[in-house]
Amino acid sequence: MIDASGDESPVDAVVVGAGFAGLYMVHRLRDHLGLSVRGIEAAEGVGGTWYWNRYPGARCDIESQLYCYSFSRELEQEWDWSERFPAQPEVLRYLNHVAERFDLKRSFTFGTRVVGADLDETSDTWLVRTDRGERLRARFLVAATGNLSAGRVPDFPGRENFRGHTYFTGDWPHQPVDFSGRRVALIGTGSTGVQLVPHVARQAAALTVFQRTPAYACPLGNRPIDAGTMARIKADYPAIRQREWDFPGGVIFDDVRPSALAESAEERQRFYEQKWQAGGMNLWLGSYEDILLDERANETVAGFVRDKIRSRVDDPDTAEKLTPRGYPFGAKRQTLEDGYYEAFNQPHVELVDVKATPIECITPDGIRTADRHHPVDDIIFATGFDAFTGALYRMNIRGRGGRLLSDHWAAGPRPYLGLNTSGFPNLFFITGPLSPSVLFNMPRAIEQHCDWIADCIAWLQAHDYQAIEAEPDAEADWVDHVREVADATLLPQADSWYLGANVPGKPRVFMVYLGGCANYKRICDDVAADHYRGLRLI
Ligand code: FAD
Ligand code: N01
C-alpha cells in the first residue's frame, strides 16, 4: 500500500533491470527525451542474463553480429566480435562497454531490488519501493526485468540437508568453480544443462546427469571470427539490419524452403544434413517453413535428429534414453550443443532418466531416485526459470484498486501487445508476455519495444496526457489473437516454459506471439499511428 509519509525521490521514470533492455531504455528516455530516470538493478553490475549466468560453457546461440544493439552505427563499427557465437564473458564485456560508452551506469542503483510498486490513483504515478528502504515516485514505470531472470530450483525434499556444495546456473559464483576430483550431479537438460555437461565432464571425477525430458540438441557450429570476416560484417551492417526483418525470428538464413513434404526423402535428407552442418538455428528456423506447423513435416526432421543422436552415443541404452519422443522437434526452445552427446561416451559420465526413476529426495550426501541412492559431492541445478511472469510478480505491483498484477493475470498474462495491461497505467513491459520476445532475436525485440515506449511517452507529453492504459477489450482481443496464432503451430504441444508448464500450478497459456517480428512491429506502429488505438489516454 502507498506510504503517505513522504521522503520519496521524484523522477519521471523508473526502469527496473540493467540487461540489454534496461540499458537501452535508460538511454532512450534520458538521452533522447531528456527525462529524469532512475534505473534499479538487483545485480552489482550491468548485463542481466550475462551477469548472472556465469556457468562454464555459457554462450549465446545467435550469431554475434545479430545478438547486439543496432541503434548506434558508431557502436557497431567500434566493437569486434571474436566468435560466431560469443561466450558469456564476451557478451558481458560488450554490455559493460555499451554502459560506459553511453554513460549509463550513473543512472542506475545497483545491488538493489524493487520489492513493491503501488499506483497512486490520485495522480496516476507509481510509488516504487526497494529492499534498501528507498521510495521513488515516478510517472512511468518500465519493467526491463527479463523473461529468464527469475530462477527456479524445484522443491526437492531434503534439499536443505545436503552437506556438499549446490549451484544454480542462473546465479553462478563469480570465481571459477573447480570440480576436479568431485562427484557431481547435474539436474536438468535444457539449453543450460546441455551447455554445461561437456565442461563439467572434463573436470569431475564422476558426473551423473538427471534428465527428465531429452532435448533435440543440434550442433552449435561455433568458430572464431578473423579480422577479415569482422571487417566484412562491419561493412555489411546496414544490409544485415534490413534483412533481419525478413525472417519471422529476426535471424538470417540462406535457402529456407516452404515444405518438407514437397521434396523427396533423399533431397530432404541432403538438405537436413546441410543445415545440421551449418549449425546454429539452421535446422530449426532455417530449413522448411512447415516443420513447426505440420506434424508429418515435423516428424521428418525429428527422425533425422534422433538418428544423429543414436549415431553419436556408443551405449545403445544411453542413446535410447537421450532420444526425444512424444513432443515435436522445435516445440521447446532449440538446444544447441558442442560435444554434449560424446560426453556420455566417457565411463565416468552417467545418465539417469528421472521419468523412469523419479528423484524422491536429496539426502545429506546424494540424490535418492526411485531405484537407488546416487552419492555425490556437489549438485548443479540447471532447472530453469519461472519465465515471463516470475520477475514481474516478485515485484508485487499493485494497480487500480490495489489489485496485484498476479491477480489480474491469474488466468494467464494479458498485456495488450505485450506492452501494457489494463488497470496499470504507465506501466510498460519490455519483451513482456504475449510479445514475440524469446522467439525474436532478443536485442532487436528489446530495441523495438524501447523505441515504441519512448515514442509513446514523447507523444503523451507532446499532447499533454498524464497516462496511458490498455482498454480491457483490446487486451482480451490480443489474448485471443496470440492464442489463435500459437494454436496454428505445433509449439503448444510440448511441456515448455513458453507455456509455463515447468512451474507447477502456473496457468497453461502460450506466452509468446508467433505472428513474426515484422508483422508484430507493423501492428505496434499502426496502433501508435492511430493515436494509440486500444489504449485509453488520460
Ligand atoms: P535480463 O538480461 O534478464 O535482465 C533483467 C535484469 O533485471 C536482471 O539483471 C535482473 O537482476 C533485474 N531484475 C529483475 N527483477 C528485478 C527487481 N525486482 N529489482 C531489480 N532488478 C531486477 N536470448 C537470445 O536471443 N539468444 C541467446 O543466445 C540467449 N541466450 C541466453 C542464455 C541464457 C543462459 C539465458 C538465461 C537467456 C538467454 N537468452 C538468449 C535470453 C536473454 O535473457 C535475452 O537475450 C536478454 O539478455 C534479455 O535481456 P533483458 O534485459 O530483457 O533481461
Ligand atoms: O532451463 P529449461 P534452461 N525434476 O527450463 C529440468 C535460454 N538459454 O536454463 O524439460 C527434474 O530449458 C527440465 O526438465 P523438463 C533458452 O531460451 C539459452 O536450460 O521440464 N528435472 C529441463 O530439462 C532456454 O530455453 C542458452 O522435463 C527438472 C531443465 O530442468 C532458457 O534460457 C543457454 C525439474 C530446465 O530447462 C532456459 O534454459 C541457456 C524437476 N523437478 C539458456 N524441473 C543458449 O544456448 C526442471 N527440470 C543460448
TrEMBL record:
EC number: 1.14.13.-
Organism, scientific name: Spectribacter acetivorans
Annotated family: Belongs to the FAD-binding monooxygenase family.
Enzyme class: oxidoreductase
GO MF terms, alphabetically ordered: oxidoreductase activity
UniProt keyword Flavoprotein, yes or no: yes
InterPro entries the record matches: FAD-binding_Monooxygenases, FAD/NAD-bd_sf
Origin superkingdom: Bacteria
Cofactor(s) the protein requires to work: FAD
Keywords, sorted A to Z: FAD, Flavoprotein, Monooxygenase, NADP, Oxidoreductase
Protein name from the UniProt record: NAD(P)/FAD-dependent oxidoreductase
